[in-house]
Each structure stands twice: as C-alpha cells, then as structure tokens.
C-alpha cells in the first residue's frame, strides 16, 4: 500500500510489522484502543543512516517537515525529584523547554534528558524515540499543531523505520496533554 504522506511505496499496518518494532512499541500497538483503530498506524521501512530529521527531509522531500514530528525526552527537576516526560512537536520546530514544558510539568529546571536515560528508560533507540510505547507513568506533552495534522510521520522506536499516524491519535495516548505553543519556531 502507498503511504498517505511522503514517497513511501510500502506502507503496512504496524500490527503486521510488530517484529520490526522495539518491544515497548510493539506492546503498545498490540494493546492499542481508542477512536483511531490500530490498523491506521502504518509502518514504513527507512534507511537508518538518514533517520535524523534534516537529512531525512532532504532525502524524502521538504513537505515532510510539516508532516512529521519529533519526540524528545525531558528531565525536569524540583528539589531532589526528577520527572521524565516526553514532548512531541512538529519537526520544523523546537520544544519550548523552559517555558511551556517546564511550567506544565511544575518543575524549576528542565533540560533534555541524557541519551542513556532517554534510551534506557524507553527501551528505544536514539533518533527513533516515539510517543507510542513510552513508560506508562510519564507525562506526554503534545503540541496542538501535531494533533491538528491529518497524518504525522514519527519514529518507530528504532532508527530504521518510521510510523505514520493520524495526528488526532496523539491525543489518545496515555497521559497525553495537548498544549498550544509547545513547539517554537527554529532559531
């Protein structure tokens, strides 16, 4: 099947590709419920050497910048307590870490989590982290523009492969909070 966005000729329901996903992502797809059916989560095989957004968009076309999102892991601190959270913003933007995200999490300091924390705690590969399959107790902050996008390309949990999901599905993920202004224009 042809993907609804991008130049991917071989899009398949992620439910048919569970072996290509990391265990937490596969488990989340297997357990998927809600208004967007699981068969609307599509998997496309991609080259892991071009997984980073700028290179990926250069290879697959600039229109994907508006149709793709990044999921980043933040570590927020208040006193001795550290809170890990994920933020999903359009690929052409950056997370408002010290504004919207920090305030929503109620922490004094927020920063990107160290790579070993992000990958170790999610069970996903750096450069492929996705909000589908995150630890159950993590807050998930989603920029409203992502939810308002018809189809969104995002990581699959691995550097190889991406998933394409209806934007409205991000609002149905566990602990998801949709926020205006979470994604800021790139500097």
From TrEMBL:
Q: Which CDD domains match?
A: PA2301
Q: List, alphabetically, the InterPro entries matched.
A: YbaK/aa-tRNA-synt-asso_dom_sf, YbaK/aa-tRNA-synth-assoc-dom
Going by the entry's taxonomy, the superkingdom of the source organism is recorded as Bacteria
Q: Which Gene3D superfamilies match?
A: YbaK/aminoacyl-tRNA synthetase-associated domain
According to the entry, every stretch annotated as the YbaK/aminoacyl-tRNA synthetase-associated domain falls at 63-169
SUPFAM superfamilies recorded: YbaK/ProRS associated domain (SSF55826)
In Swiss-Prot or TrEMBL terms, this protein is called: YbaK/EbsC family protein
* Species this protein is from: Streptomyces omiyaensis
């Amino acid at each position: 099947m042809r993907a609804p966005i991008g130049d991917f000729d071989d899009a398949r329901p992620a439910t048919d590709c569970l072996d290509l996903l990391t265990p937490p992502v596969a488990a989340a797809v297997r357990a998927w419920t809600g208004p967007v059916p699981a068969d609307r989560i599509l998997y496309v095989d991609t080259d892991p050497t071009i997984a980073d957004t700028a290179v990926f968009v250069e290879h697959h076309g600039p229109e994907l910048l508006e149709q793709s999102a990044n999921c980043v892991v933040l570590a927020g601190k208040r006193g001795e307590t550290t809170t890990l959270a994920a933020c999903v913003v359009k690929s052409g933007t950056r997370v408002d870490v010290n504004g919207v995200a920090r305030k929503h999490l109620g922490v004094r300091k927020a920063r990107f989590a160290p790579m070993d924390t992000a990958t170790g705690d999610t069970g996903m590969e750096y450069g492929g982290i996705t909000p589908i399959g995150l630890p159950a107790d993590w807050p998930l902050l989603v920029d409203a523009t992502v939810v308002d996008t018809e189809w969104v390309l995002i990581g699959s949990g691995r550097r190889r492969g991406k998933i394409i999901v209806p934007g409205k599905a991000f609002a149905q993920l566990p602990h998801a909070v949709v926020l205006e202004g979470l994604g800021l224009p790139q500097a």
